[in-house]
UniProtKB/TrEMBL annotation:
SUPFAM superfamilies: Aldolase (SSF51569)
Coiled coil: none
Designated gene of the protein: dapA
Family named by the database record: Belongs to the DapA family.
Protein source organism: Sphingobacterium alimentarium
UniProt-listed PROSITE patterns: DHDPS_2
GO CC annotations on file: cytosol
Protein name, entry field: 4-hydroxy-tetrahydrodipicolinate synthase
Length: 291
């Protein structure tokens, strides 16, 4: 699964002022990512405001993204949720052509036990024809998938090939890296953690800020993969403040504002997410100028 190493980006979903999907801008954003060196794209992760999209809208976005990319870079589809049977059906119905794997978030809101998380992913793994990337993001799901559960899944299911980790727990990362099967991969789920996680042995990042700054994020991941941490550290420090500003009022409204400032005009979001405040806008403008 070299397709999901180094830098991937969780694409935003552009909306028109009336709330409909802005496919023209999505196409421009995809071209921007490819031209600036992003290694792979994730269609409909959390940053894509997936929770506010209908099933039909998701299908249209996946189809459009596949056709626009046209095999130029690998594609990952975000298919996750807290209703296991529904996810299983969605995976069975998913048109896999053009996609290399599925990113599936640990169940949110329900707050299952570790056994519940294991059984959830077991059921998904048994029906998926594509490799699966686990996604642990306790800040959103309300529960942490422990290293023991991750390792159990990695060892028992060959089509579970990686985990996107956004727990911020470096002891947990280290345990996964120490005890994992040889080909199982750890991927950073937090932009600021990319360098230290790759120093430990992670293979890359699925980025948010990469929507707006793909060249910087791709270069950072490449330098880390090459072991040039002195050069990577410069980019890491350069991106810290603007990354914080992207999340201070929620994701993806911060990075969508940056894209608007860059001429993409896509800071429209769907409720319950709202646009960022004028104060945060001013801070982002200042930081963009410095970058």
């Amino acid at each position: 699964m070299t397709e999901i190493q180094r830098a991937g980006v969780a694409l935003v979903t552009p909306f028109n002022a009336d709330g409909s999907i802005d496919f023209e801008t999505l196409g421009r954003l995809i071209e921007f990512q490819i031209e600036e060196g992003m290694n792979y794209l994730v269609s409909l992760g959390t940053t894509g405001e997936t929770a506010t999209l209908s099933s039909e809208e998701k299908k249209k976005i996946w189809k459009f993204t596949k056709e626009k990319v046209n095999g130029r870079v690998p594609l990952v589809a975000g298919i996750g949720g807290n209703n296991t049977s529904e996810i299983i059906q969605n995976i069975k119905d998913f048109e896999t052509e053009g996609y290399c794997s599925i990113l599936s978030v640990s169940p949110y809101y329900n707050k299952p036990t570790q056994e519940g998380i294991y059984q959830h992913y077991k059921a998904i793994a048994e029906v998926s024809t594509l490799p699966i990337i686990l996604y642990n993001v306790p800040g959103r799901t309300g529960s942490n998938m422990t290293a023991q559960t991750t390792l159990r899944l990695a060892k028992e299911f060959k089509n579970i090939v990686a985990i996107k980790e956004a727990s911020g727990n470096f002891a947990q990362f280290s345990e996964i890296l120490r005890d994992k099967p040889e080909n199982f991969m750890l991927i950073s789920g937090d932009d600021p953690a990319t360098l230290p996680m790759m120093a430990l042995g992670a293979v890359g990042i699925i980025s948010v800020v990469g929507n707006a700054l793909p060249r910087q994020v791709a270069t950072l991941a490449r330098l880390c993969a090459e072991g040039d941490y002195i050069s990577a550290r410069k980019i890491h420090h350069q991106l810290l403040h603007i990354t914080d500003l992207c999340f201070v009022e929620g994701n993806p409204c911060g990075v969508k504002y940056i894209l608007r400032e860059m001429g993409y005009g896509i800071d429209h979001v769907r409720l319950p997410i709202v646009p960022i405040s004028s104060d945060t806008q001013a801070k982002i403008k200042k930081e963009l100028t410095e970058i």
